[in-house]
Fold each of these.
Amino acid sequence: MAQRTLLFVLFDGVQSLDVTGPLEVFAGAEKHTPGTYRIRTASLDGGPVRSSSGLTLVPDEALTAAAGPHTLLVPGGEGTRAPDPRLTEWLRTHGPRAPRLVSVCTGAVLLAVAGLLDGRRATTHWAYCGTLARDHPAVDVDPEPIYVRDGHVATSAGVTAGIDLALALVEEDLDRDVALAVARHLVVFLRRPGNQAQFSAQLAAQTAQRAPLREVQRWITEHPAGDLTVDSLAARARLSPRHFARAFREETGTTPGRYVDRVRLEHARRLLEDTPGGIEEVARASGYGTPEAMRRAFVKALGTAPAEYRRRFRPAPAH
């Protein structure tokens, strides 16, 4: 297998974890399978850069001296808000030459400014998806997934999602066993599927202002297999079903039904990832009732069946 050169682009205001997270994944894969990756970092002039957190990063070389990499990785950070025109021009020229182009978080903004995402589906940190879509209408921005693949271009959501994408690329380059070995070494036990939502149910929805509605949110989370119909939840909040549904949506930004769906999906995922219970047992414990109902929910939300999800995203037992 030919060695792949990976080039990480550095600039002032870069988010350090956007760089070091994926870099550690690829470095771990190189240690596991020597000769797989050659990892390089580069800034415009080859000088040190200061990350958004104040950490100084010293690159290996200048971008102008970097040989054509197999994978060009562009991180995000505060420095993407007013990028150096020389950097976006360099990306405009050299980005199309890379067999694989990757961005982490708001690195997608740099790719978009360079015209490298036009006509492509892409994502970025949830807080910047609206801005990316508004400023670059030629880009098909999807705010939901933690990472998106469109041909040779891969974009990921905020910060740690870059680790998930890097693990997926290692699996693509090598195999699943290497990716899982790297994940275990980094104590990143589970690789999330790219089409998993950026938010958990609790993060996706706002916390209700009124105590009775907050109590209902807590109850749903702690009792996914309970009676979570609107009538039942309304009674718990001591509101009429109609008033409850309206108030819940106004205060959380989602309907009770969608909130319940997300909680049940998360609960089922965790059981599949962390416990040896059978599919039927997981379905009952998560409130689906039947394996078929759970299968439909998984396919709709994640694009994969529960059994396949468990096979792919539960770490192999240590020997």
Note: The chain has a mean pLDDT of 89.
Amino acid sequence: MLKTKAISVVCVLVLAGCAPRYMAPPVQPVAAEPEIPGQISEFEAAAIPQRVLQQINSLRANIALQPLALNQQLTAAAMAHSRDMSAQNRAWHWGSDGSSPLDRVRRQGYPGNLVGENISESFENDIQTLAAWMGVRETRDVIMDPAATQLGLAWYQEPSGKIWWTLLTGN
């Protein structure tokens, strides 16, 4: 009797294994898409330089550094480089023509000394980009350099929403 029950259980298990079962289709992993911001409006574009300047000057005031002032020539050099990085499709400090940050500020007629340049390729807004720069020693040092007295900030936003940021400091 025990042998018959064991055979019956085995038969049921074998038959159950042969029966068609519903199986959910495999779940395909979905790559996380970056959050793409909308295009920066004209209103927002006008507010960004002052907002970033205010944030930077607040940070500098916390350690008794003099405030920075916006400079049109540094901003023009930053804009040219942001567009050029987009054209090259890479964030780096060299222009497509081999120009350095110093070359670019000189082309715009900046008479002072270049202190430093920060760049970024992101989908982040201006304050998120500034926070990222402040989180890295080398880029924070450009912003917080006591020798800096002037600031240029510009960006180029592609139709995809990707933004190429350039910040220049000088004195």
Note: Strands lie at 69-70, 114-122, 150-157, 163-170.
Amino acid sequence: MTQNSAKTFQIGDHVRWNSEAGYVSGIIIRIHTENFDYKGYTHHATPEDPQYEIKSDKSDHIAAHKGKALTKI
């Protein structure tokens, strides 16, 4: 696997991200490596720049983010 500037994570990793309401944390439940539709929007993802579905620790909310928005905790 080649090294690049994108952060990579695995299913089960505990991460946090900055949302409109402040920092949120959750567990990665799915990794997308192709474009996908979620909540009415097309999210762009590639094997080199995947998007991660994260289940919030505090609610059942599911968010989708690229690795650059996430920090492993």
Note: DSSP finds no helices and seven strands in the chain.
